[in-house]
Each structure stands twice: as structure tokens, then as C-alpha cells.
Design brief:
44% helix, alpha/beta, single chain, 2 domains, 15 helices, binds pyridoxal-5'-phosphate, three-stranded mixed sheet, Aspartate Aminotransferase, domain 2, Aspartate Aminotransferase, domain 1
């Protein structure tokens, strides 16, 4: 026990020395363009609240009304007595909006990814994952016990090579982020779905960062590319980002969803989301469809940033999404840049290994529809001033 304590202390010290120590900052405000941090206001460029719905009056109102009616806790898991009318209605609305047979709620995106992959794939099956997939997708693949292969980022040719050993009749699943969470680029879904079809493999797309943001009505990457349930049989979305609430869903065929209800351990053995969160999410789902201006504004901000950053000579990634990383290389450099920006009242998070590959530490800038052009200009001049 004491020996372990010593080992841990030493390991923590090593993390600090390597600029890999992570610490939390306590904020004292709602999510928004400005956050209250250590008694002062800072301009926020690190939230995933892309559409500005986390503190939207109508979303809050739905939350409050449902809490008045249903209380706070859901009381149990969905399969016991925790599956309420708000959960059920949200699932039906999500199925309808995504054009899938059914949708199923999970308490977090992390749990959805673990539960869907490990709930459907077993030993003897094969899972193919993009190297840059979110940790929860990788963990789901490992947990399933299936053969686990990673292909080079967004590289169809490499995936094709890896799939050559795939035997007829053997179950396979291709798993990818829709919008890659740390790079901001988009999966080559048309190619992936064609390859999946050709190989009789399932395709799972985790659209945590695209849902609500991409597509004419916010349906995410599958709406943008017009991909049906036959082409993308497993679609995952999360509520903690553009929806501004919390939780996640998977949408797909009747047989997939019903199997997950029977078999998915992170679905079965956990308490259902609070009904008020489901109610608030229903309002977000409506708002993200009708408020097309939020997507338009976000796109204007992104384009304005990219033009400005190029003029400053900053090296950008091929990202058209609200995630705009600036790669700095060493962890120390990313930490210093983030600290220098914070001194100027601007909060941009530094992302380091193992979240990203060694030598690719970065600033991860994210935009929200609540930003204005003036905020982006403020960010650009701060980036210029800290001379990264
Ligand atoms: C954030 C994220 C998740 C996890 O979702 P939570 O609801 O926060 O647990 C899963 N996949 C991707 C790609 C994400 O970015």
C-alpha cells in the first residue's frame, strides 16, 4: 500500500517533468463565450458547445419543467423502472430525424461506444479502426475480444490492405469518428461505406463532433453525405457537444437496437439519464434543426479564423470544422502557448500525448455560434502576440 503510494508519487513527478501532468481548472459560470475562471472573465475557445445550446433559455426551461414533474434521478436502469416518457420520446424523435429504424439512449458517449461495439462484436470477429479514433472507440474494440486492427488515418488504401485477410462469412466492423476530435477533419465516409459494402462489413460512425454542426438541418456527417441506414448501419451521436446537454444515442436497424437492449452491458447495468436531461435534449434537437443560422454563423467564424490565421503565417490543419488545431510539437511548447494566451484573457486548451501522437502536441481551438467576428479577431491578435 505505502509502496504503491511512493511509486505513484514518483510517476506523477515524472509526468510533471515531461510537461504531461494534467490539471483541472475550476470555472464558476455557465458555459458561454466568457467563462469565470479564478475570479476573472476569460474568452472561451475550448468548449464543444458548438451551437451555444448548453445555456439556452428554452433548453433550461425544458429541463426545469421536467425536473418539476419527474424529479431529478431516474431511479434505476432503463430495463428496471428508469425508462421514462421523456427518454422514449427522445429516442423516437432521434430515429425519425436520422431516418433510422430506431435509436437507443446511453448515459454518455463513452458508454455508448463501449456498449455498442462490445455488445455486437465477439471473439472471432474483426474490428478495423482509424488510428485517430476517439479513445472510447478503441476501448470498445479492445473490450469486445474481437481481432483488433488499426488502419492509417483516413487511408482507404491501407484499410483495404488490412481487410485482405478477411474471410467470407466472418463478421467485420469498420469503426470511425465522423469529425476527428483532435484534428477536426472529416472521415472519408463515401469511400468507407463503399468498402464496407464490398467487404460485407458493418460500418460504425461516431459523429460526436458533427451531429448538429454538419448537414443542412444538423443531421451531421450522414446528412452531409446523404448516407442511409444501409450505408451507415450504426450511427452514434453524443449530447454533450452541439446539443449542449449530456448523454448519447445510437441509431440503426431494429435488430441492432433490440440486440443492444438485450446484450449491451453499458446500457443494461447503469442508471438511466435523468428524465430532465432527456427533456432538455429534446428541445436541443428541435432547436438545432430550426436554428440553421447557428451553423451558418459557425461556418463564417471558421472561415474568418482560417483566413486570418493564414495571413499571420500560422500553420493550420485541413479542417473545415469548428475544431481548428495548431500543431506545436513538444508538450512544453503547447503548454507555454496556452498559458501565454490565458495571460491575455483567452482560454485555448493544450492537447498533449497520449491524447494525440508523440510530437504533435497542439493548441485545440474550438468555435461556437455564440462567438462574434470581433472575438475571433481578438484570438488572432493574441495568437500573433504570443508568437507561437
Ligand atoms: C466526446 C466524445 C465521446 C464521448 O462522449 P461523452 O458523452 O463525452 O462521453 C465519444 N466519441 C467522440 C468522438 C468524442 O469526441
Amino acid at each position: 500500500m505505502i509502496e504503491k503510494d511512493k511509486q505513484l508519487q514518483q510517476a506523477l513527478e515524472e509526468l510533471k517533468q515531461a510537461d504531461l501532468y494534467r490539471s483541472r481548472r475550476v470555472i464558476d459560470s455557465a458555459q458561454g463565450i466568457y467563462l469565470q475562471l479564478d475570479g476573472r472573465q476569460v474568452l472561451n475557445f475550448c468548449s464543444n458547445d458548438y451551437l451555444g445550446l448548453a445555456n439556452h433559455p428554452e433548453v433550461i426551461q425544458s429541463f426545469k419543467e421536467a425536473a418539476d414533474r419527474y424529479g431529478v434521478g431516474s431511479g434505476s436502469a432503463h430495463l428496471v423502472c428508469g425508462h421514462g416518457l421523456e427518454h422514449h420520446a427522445l429516442e423516437e424523435e432521434l430515429a425519425d430525424f436520422t431516418g433510422r429504424d430506431r435509436a437507443l439512449l446511453f448515459s454518455t458517449g463513452y458508454m455508448a461506444n463501449l456498449g455498442v461495439i462490445a455488445g455486437l462484436m465477439v471473439k472471432g470477429d474483426t474490428i478495423y479502426e482509424d488510428k485517430l479514433n476517439h479513445a472510447s472507440l478503441l476501448d470498445g474494440g479492445l473490450l469486445s475480444g474481437a481481432k483488433f486492427k488499426r488502419y492509417l488515418h483516413n487511408d482507404l488504401h491501407n484499410l483495404q490492405l488490412k481487410m485482405q485477410g478477411q474471410e467470407a462469412g466472418q463478421n467485420a466492423m469498420i469503426v470511425t469518428d465522423g469529425v476527428f476530435s483532435m484534428d477536426g477533419d472529416v472521415a472519408c465516409l463515401l469511400g468507407l461505406s463503399a468498402l464496407a459494402e464490398q467487404q460485407s462489413a458493418m460500418l460504425l460512425v461516431d459523429d460526436a463532433h458533427g451531429f448538429g454542426v454538419l448537414g443542412r438541418s444538423g443531421g451531421g456527417i450522414v446528412e452531409q453525405y446523404q448516407l442511409t441506414q444501409a450505408q451507415v448501419p450504426l450511427l452514434i451521436g453524443t449530447f454533450g457537444k452541439a446539443f449542449g446537454t449530456s448523454g448519447a444515442f445510437v441509431a440503426g436497424s431494429e435488430a441492432f437496437i433490440e440486440t443492444l437492449i438485450q446484450k449491451s452491458r453499458t446500457y443494461i447495468y447503469t442508471t438511466a439519464l435523468p428524465p430532465a436531461v432527456a427533456a432538455a435534449t429534446r428541445t436541443s434537437l428541435r432547436l438545432l434543426q430550426v436554428d440553421g443560422w447557428r451553423r451558418d454563423k459557425l461556418n463564417q467564424l471558421i472561415m474568418h479564423f482560417r483566413r486570418g490565421a493564414e495571413q499571420l503565417g500560422l500553420e493550420l490543419m485541413p479542417s473545415e470544422s469548428a475544431i481548428q488545431p495548431i500543431i506545436l510539437g513538444k508538450s512544453q511548447k503547447a503548454m507555454q502557448a496556452s498559458a501565454a494566451l490565458l495571460k491575455q484573457g483567452i482560454w485555448v486548451s493544450a492537447i498533449r500525448p497520449p491524447t494525440v501522437a508523440q510530437g504533435s502536441a497542439r493548441l485545440r481551438i474550438t468555435f461556437s455560434a455564440m462567438h462574434d467576428i470581433a472575438h475571433v479577431d481578438q484570438l488572432l491578435s493574441a495568437l500573433d502576440a504570443v508568437a507561437i
